[in-house]
Every structure is written in structure tokens, then in C-alpha cells.
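the two lines:
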Amino acid sequence: MSISTFESSAHAGSPPVKAPAQPKPANASLNTSAALAMPRQPGALQTWMQNWLVPALLPLALLFAWDLAVRLTGTMLVPSPREVGMMLWDFAFGGIYDDAFSETLGVHWLQSMSRVYGAFALAAAVGIPLGLVIGKNAAIRRVVDPTLQMLRPVPVTAWLPLSMIFFGVGPNAAIFLVFLGAFFPIVINTTFGVKSVEGRLFEAAAMLGCKGASMFRQVVLPAAMPSIFNGLRLGHGIAWFLIVVGEMTGVPEGLGAAIMDGRMLSRTDVVISGMVVIGFTGFVTDRLLVALNNRLLKWSPQHNV
Amino acid sequence: MSDSIAPRKAAPILDMAGVSKVFPLNGRPIHALKDVDLQIQKGEFVCLIGASGCGKSTLLRIMGGFETVSSGSARMYHAPIVEPGPERGMVFQDYGLFPWLTVRQNIAFGPKQRGLPEANLREIADHFLNMVGLGKFADHFPNQLSGGMKQRVSIARALANDCEVLLMDEPFGALDALTREVLQQELLDIWAKTRLTVIFVTHAVEEAVLLADRVVVMTAGPGRVETDYRVPLERPRCITAPEFNRVRQELTEMLTSHVGHARAAA
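prediction for all of em together
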């Protein structure tokens, strides 16, 4: 069998390949390009700067601008970054103000995380299977889709009174609101992912002897995976976004509840501390989702974030 | 004829009898194929050629089981073709590889459907990987390959599934000329080695003359078989030989005269 690897060197992005032991005359002249395919590797310092320093520049600049603005205006309404930092420390470990908020961050944080991740997991557990079914089955799509599209634009905040009637005052109402917010992007992106599987792949699979349920597992699910992950990331962001509203339902503990309390007491440093913790936690979880995404979708460079 | 492969009167591996295919288009029926008769013997290399819209791809897809006939019958070994199956491997112009599977996993996909054990799958996949010269790329994803390499994977995938008929829908149409030449040669090598039956759709006359035992010329509106032409050339063929050129010219004239007719009719 003739082995001709010259294409790989002609093709940008492919690893260079050594010339076959006895290249055919037609290929011989082309193999010389194998050596120049490799770009220069960036150094460790350059990598560190790109991955850590550059992304940190804008947050640092914003922090600086915030500090400067507070100093210049001399406002008493907005605390400086330093004051928020102290509040965060006291919130977490106490020892500075020793008031009702001291040392309570852990409890608020855990409560909010359990609600957000619980509701998010529930939204994924319902949304992904439902999206798969809606995407695959046109009859079910006709039944369910109009209702979904009608419910989707309704702001989740509008559900607040109803959710308190349904679930009473307490965490369940909050979980319901967060669930609702995360559910729609997950179900809609999953549906889209299933609907947009290339028909060619079904043909190829059928030609190779793949049928029925096996087709779903081996073709539909992996092909829809990029969209499913998109939905999960969007849903996760919305889940954190909604926790403050969710915890307006009269729960005593939670970051949202603490922010509400801080607002009532004009403790803006508490409000901002809560905002910082939510932003940070959401960011870290999103990074985890991205890492999982990049791992599972390493076959698709354009879906690597 | 010196290059005829199968005995004249053997039962055909593929038998199209009076095949018609009608598509509805904006509520009006379009005759993609009308009364097509075509018998293909085991081991033959047949090219279907014709201008776009002549139904050559539709005919190939009927053989593949991707389309059903509107009337007539499409049979393989006397059994009606009703759905795609592993005995008829298809090679698509756009490859149809599973992007989330590695090259090796793509090739092992067919055997995996038959429930073969993992070690066996690996062995089969590696055998065909080496056959198409991609041993070093076993763990790459399709996205990391060039077009020509993808098409090799696609061919290996069909072969790994023990297909008897290789259906190829303009498989090299999207490749650059140099890669195309290499792949044509490799395909002929594989064919010589495996004695597969190959049905190859193309619109390039030179490609058809280089590859085929028989060239089936199709015409459009409605799609039907115009000429069934046996290529009178010994193998291996040389595209610069005078007789090659003569055959190519002959076939080109057949093809262009029909295109002219179709245009006059339209």
C-alpha cells in the first residue's frame, strides 16, 4: 500500500510527519516542508502573563477607579474598596466590628450555594432530557414548544408572589425561582443542539449498522453536547443572578438575604461584600464548567472556551 | 474484453430494474430518475458520470438505501434494498466522520455496532488505518486532519465494516488535484487488493477513465442511463498515454452532446 503522508505537512495545524522511508518520487520534493510547520513555543513567563496577569488588569483598574472615585467625591454612601475588604474579613472571620454580620459569611454562603447548585442540578436534570426529547420528536415539540416559548419571556421576578403561594415562605420558593431561571436556557439549547445534528451523521451511522436507541446515545447525544454545555453555562450564570431575588422570599440565611438585610440597614459594605462573594463564586464555578467543557469537547476546537 | 472482471452471465451483485424516483418540489413532481436499468457485477469498478441534476447521486443513494424507489426495484443479490446496511459502505464527499471520535474510533464504529470486543476493534481499526497510511494519526480527531486524510478515514471506515460494495459520492471532488491523484491511486490499490465492487459517482471524465471498468453516462431531465461504456484500456492506466486521451475525448463528446441536448430541451 502506498503511504503518502505529504499532505499533513502541507496542511497547516497538523503535526509534521517524517518522510516515508522510501518516498515516491512525486512526493519527495514536498517532504522538505515538514521542518517548518512548528511555531515557536511561548515561554513560561509569557504563558503566565497571558493566563493570569492580563485577565487581572481590568479588575484591578476598576478597583483603582472605584477607590479614586470614593476619595475624590468624599461620599459617605459608598464604601471604599478597603472598607469592603475589612467588611469581608469581618463577615468571614469576625474580630473587627463584632456585629450581627460578623462571622456569618460561611453560613450565608453555604445556604446560597446549596440553593443555587441544587436548583441548577434540578434544572439540568429536567431540562436536558426534556430538550433531548423535544429536539428529537417533532410531535412532542409541537405539543410543548409553544408553551415553553410563552413562559420563557416572563421575568422570573414576576413569579415571586406565585412561588411564595406555591411553596410558602422559605427556601423552596427561592429554589423554585432559581430553577425556573436556569431551566429555560438549558432546555432550549439542548433542543437546538439535537435539532441541528447534521443529517449526514445519521446516514453514516445507519450505513455502519447503528440503529434506534443506540443512534441516540452514539450520535445525537455527543453531537448535541456543545449546545448542552452552552445551555448549562448560561443556566448557571442565571442561577447565581437570581439568588438575590430568590432569597427575597423571606429566608433568614443566604447571600441574597444578607444583601437584603444590608440594604435595609444602609450597610452598603455588606451589600457589596455579598456582591463580591456571588461574583467570585459564580466565576469559579463557571471556570469549572469551562474546564469540563474543554475536556469533554476537546474534539472540537471551536467549542473550546 | 481483456479487462472484464466477472463472468458475463453471473448474477449481478446490484440490480436496478426500471428504477424511477420522483421528488415533490414546491408541490410539483420532479423526475430525478426514470426507468433506470443497471446491473453491476461483483468486483466491477463502475463510474456514474453526468452533469449535475442527472440523478447519479440519487441512484447511488438508492443503492445505499438512503432513498427508496418510487417505482421499479433496487436489489442486492436478489434482496430488495430497503435501508442502509454495512454490506454497502458509503463514502460521502463531505466525509460524514464523527467529529467527537478519534480516527481509530471512527474506523472501529462499524465493528463496534456488531458487538465485537474492544481488543478486536482495535486490531481491526489499526489494520485498516495502516492500509490507508494513517497509522500515526490513530488518536487524532477528524478536525485535526486535512481533507484527503479525512477521506482516507472515511474509506477505511467503510472497509473496516466488511462492506462488499463501496459506494462513493464524488469522494475526491473537494480535494486539491495533487491529493486527488494520490487518493485515486490508493483507491485502485485497495480495489485490486480487496476485489470490492465500487460504484463511484463523479463529474470528471478523466477520473472516470482512470478508475472505471465501466462508465455509465447519465443525462438529466428526467435522469436516465444514456450510455453504458466499457473502458477499453489495460491497467495500470497512464493518463498521458495517447489511447487514454482518445478514450477521454470520446467520453467527453458523449457527455457534452447530451448536455447540449438537455440545454436545447430546457
